[in-house]
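## Example record

The block below lists the input lines for one assembly entry, exactly as stored, with component labels intact.
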Amino acid sequence: MYLRNTWYALARGDELGEGLSPFTVLGEPVVAFRKRDGTPAAIEDSCPHRKLPLSMGRRDGDAIVCGYHGLTFDGTGSCIAAPTQARIPSTARVRSYPVADKWGLVWIWMGDPSTADPAKIIAIDNHGSAGWILTNGDSMVCGCNYLYLTDNLLDPSHVAWVHVSSFAAPGTESTSLEVKPTDSGVIVSRWMHDRQVPPFYAPLVKFKGNCDRLQHYEVRYPALGINMSIYTPAGQGGADKVLPADAYRMVSYHFLTPVDENTTRYFWLQHRNTDAEDAEITAQVAAGARRAFEEDRVILEAVHRGMATKTSPHLDLALDAGALRFRRNLQALIDKENGASKS
Amino acid sequence: MPADSDEQLAPASANSVTFVFSKKTALWDDKHTSLLELAEAHGLSPDFSCRSGICGTCACELISGDVVYFTEPLDVPDEGMVLICCSRPAGDVKLKI
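Predicted structure tokens for the full assembly:
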């Protein structure tokens, strides 16, 4: 079961064009394309006649012609031609999905179309502020349920073992975590004081020597991760401090779209407040992120398999508090949505 | 209450915690964080994993009395059960440990 009345990232903006691009989202087949005016459209990828994927058909203007018998559907899912019939069957209709471009991605609304508001697509704080740069990011497909990714994005501890060459540094294995449920999700965070700057960030921060370091791991319902790292010179960081001007901030946004129960499309963007004009650093940051997320992918795919086929009980650790709280609250939202749609 | 069960010095008003299976009674002392820590300090070894109220491993039967949670459990324990890793006694309690 999934939360439906929410925006999921469907594709990178440049993935969609004139051609018919097939996707699976929340287990449903979707075909997406850009109309002649450049705006995206998405409809059910399944002809109501014999369920041939419409993505195997062809474009005709802003419509799709089924590759089996020519039933033709426009971007709203209405059948506008049935060449083998004198009249278009009244039941010939496919589902259409609201879609919108934002942050270089195409977003899709899988729930009640009447409640889809593109203004509710996630906001990026400080976007457009002087000195900040948003990188285009990237995506990958992970062979695991999306909740293993939300677990991971609420787990600052794993970096000490999974990301040894990038985000790990003394302190990441054992400094205690603060778990804070919010109206929109859960935040797990901690400040670590007077520590080494980890390898990924060492060339990026604008000061020498040890640091105070914030790990802010936030996931908003149902699957939007916001991972904020702040580095200040040692002695200048902390929840109660006004941070110095040379505080380094990097915010990674993670958008998880369930393909089905066993597969997740993982999109990310990065937003930072230093070296905005430096393309080399942008490339280095992007490559570093991809490398790190590949490290996560290998672990989480094996975790999914391990949990799905376990032959003995698993256990929970204190570090799971945020992730499990998130799962409980998300399930309550999903139950509520299902209850509301049935009544 | 077995008279020889508590070796600690504690205020006369301290809550007593009786571990019924183990036939031990202890007086609560705020130097312990949780009932689990109190049990361990008295040589008992209840099962645990997370020690933070989320996994339910330490759930045990509360025979009498009441506890207060200093961390809200992720799931409310079944009727008559308490999580000892994240609770303290509220008055005298008897636990099936």
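DSSP finds four helices and 18 strands in chain A. Chain A has a mean pLDDT of 94.
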